[in-house]
Amino acid sequence: MQQPPQPQQPQQQAQPQPQPQPPQQVEQLVSPTPFLAPPTLTAQDIIVDGRFKLLSYLGGGSFGQVFKALDLRTQQPLALKLENRRDNDRMTSEYRMTEALDRCHGFPRVLYYYAKVDDFRVLGLELLGPSLGDLRRYCGGSFSVKTTLMIAIQLLARLQHMHKNCHLVHRDLKPENFLMGIGRRGHMVYLTDMGLSQAKFVAPNDPMHYRVVVEPGLVGTPHWASLAAHRLHAQTYRDDLESLGYILLEFVLGGLPWSNPQPVDGLTPAQRRVHLKQLTTPQQLCQGAPDCFRQYFDYVTTQLAYNDVPDYKRLIKMFKKEFWDRRYQFDNVYDWTRRRYAEFRVVD
Fold first, then answer.
1. pLDDT band with cut points at 50, 70 and 90 for residue 117
2. N or C: which end of the chain has fewer CB within 10 A?
3. Does 81 appear as a known binding residue?
């Protein structure tokens, strides 16, 4: 992978007139990893392993950088994840976790893995569509009850498979890790980014005994992390469900009590977030949302013991009942589907 020379610093003078752009300009690849992609590096500059041509920068996962790429052998697009070999090897673990879920309903397929390509480890995955985080912003910051319930039912099924069949805890659930499919699977919600996933810890002797994880800090994303994760406890199925509940509730309400924590009484914003999670009851947390969300949090936070296997069917039935009571139809028409259709009609 050859990189172009570093761009010169802009001069402090009047800006020159912009030059005409080529007719087929390729999107710039912008990466926070300095030795991976300087700001001027374009997709036309890099072909990985003589096979994968980078097309555009998609974003960063729990580690590494993700690009849309073209397989020059098959002419098929894919998502290519690159991790610099100078960094700790977390890609091998993600590869093994993702491979365990390969070809399972609602999980991305592994297309390519190589532990040493120049200075990088490379993981090729099935190319998917936008994340629920992107779609939420596109829809104005929240989703309707119908869209949220359709998402909830699918994601509970994903966690059920991941937990019960593979005995894995995701540990980093967030909207950016839920991606929509493309083409014929455009209605399907995928669970992605297994970079922080881990086999479930079994507590010795006492099912309520937490083991303190030897970690320098929180594993996961603070905004949606469970209380146990904030306390650096080993995470289990219950923690994934708690995180999912926060995400779904934020989808339907547009925010959570700790969305914009302010320092109070000497507490930092991060400490304030944890404080609010501790103090907020399920009733208070779910105010303004359908009652199925309160029932969900009552079950997850008060009825589930640390080592319990959740009753996924009960939780799915809970959301389905709310769905049918509101006389919705499982037509795979989401909020963004309607909005996009309306935009097309305006253009026409």
1. confident
2. C
3. yes
